[in-house]
Fold:
Amino acid sequence: MQFDPSSSVPPALAPPAPQPFLIPPAKRLSFICGLTLATVLAGLVELAFKRGVAGAIAVDTLSDFAAAIWRYIDWAISSFVLGLAQWVILRQYGLTHLWIVATGVGGLIAQAVGFGWQAKLGLVLSRLGYVWLGLAQGFVLRRDARSAWLWLFVPPVTFVLSNLLFLVMLGQTPTGIAVGLPGPSYVALIPALTLQGLLPAIALCGLRQKGTSAHRQSSDAAFQATAEITDLTQLRSLAQQLQAQLHQTTIAEMAGDQDLIYLVDVTEDGAIAMYQPVNQAAFDYADQTPLPALAEAELAGQASQASREKYGFEAATLVRFQVIFQATGDITIRSSNGEPLS
Structure:
């Protein structure tokens, strides 16, 4: 990782406005595992509760009205437990506690609607009623994610497929034909619950954030308002200082074969004041670079009296560089407009 002003990496003069994913790519595997496990545990807890209470109050002997009340209580408990279990994972990525309410209320409505549809559509297709759960959860997601309306289809598809898998694991098909895979109900339940967690987790990984978080990049207004130092000698010196800082930190993960391109502002003393991702990969993998840890946003816009006297600048207080973390592992530093500093 040596300072390479002659690199052939193309310059990036006009940064687009890409948005980071709701779930950072570097954390997707742990997120998928966590949400899937939370969903499975929620389902097992609800099953244990149902069996325990059903045995204690002899549900089979209840009147029609009492049995209907019990059904709604059971649906509400299962939905809110699921929402709480999933929120424990989702809150780490900025989703509010409203996810619990949306899942609880939406799940209750979805199960009630599905129960009414079951006589006409059958056990599997009646799960299309979970479109109500998608509507409720999508309402929460729209605050943080773009194209949140697409979530309308995720729960119904998830529950249709999981119920189909459940029937197959029990040795049946939706038409009642045996398929030769009979087994205890809990053996069939666990794969179905796993699918109920896995598919939404994968879908969440595909959503993009509506805005950018403060720790990932400097504000656009402050960044665009920054004046630049143009003295070539000073530029070269500060570029080497910046290279030394970046070289000291190991990058945990790169975006496959994509380069990560940033515009970085450095003070006259060599400290990183702020930075801005240029391409989508730079947004998604910013936390895997040393920039967030090295950036000192409070330095942005602060003039150095000594430097103004030395270099004769009235407004130029920062130096802007183009920093490219290459897929090969090299780090290239150029001027802000992509020209080699040679």
User: Anything to note?
Assistant: The mean pLDDT is 76. The CA atoms of residues 172 and 216 lie 51 Å apart. Residues 28-57 form the longest helix (30 residues). The chain is about 50% helix and 10% strand.
